[in-house]
Design goal:
mainly alpha
Length: 85
Amino acid sequence: ALITLIRRWAVPKTRHTSMVLAALGVFGAALFFGDSMITPAIPVLSAVEGLEIVDPEFKDLVVPVTAAIIVALFAVQRRGTAAVG
C-alpha cells in the first residue's frame, strides 16, 4: 500500500525518487516496529535489575528472567486484558 501511494504521489515521476521514498518508508516502518519491541523491555529490565539490590548474586539472572517475563507477557497479550484481569 505504501509503494502504491509513493508511486501515485511522487512529485517527479522518476524511478530513483520512488526508490528513495520507498526506502525511507521501509526504514520508518523498521524504526516503528523496533520501538514497539524495545519499549516494553526497558521497564521490565529496570524492574528486574532491582533484584541486584536485594542480592548481588542475582546479577547473572537479570537477562534470562527479563526474557521470560517478556515472552510470557506477549503470549498472554493475545488473549486480551479481559482474560488477565
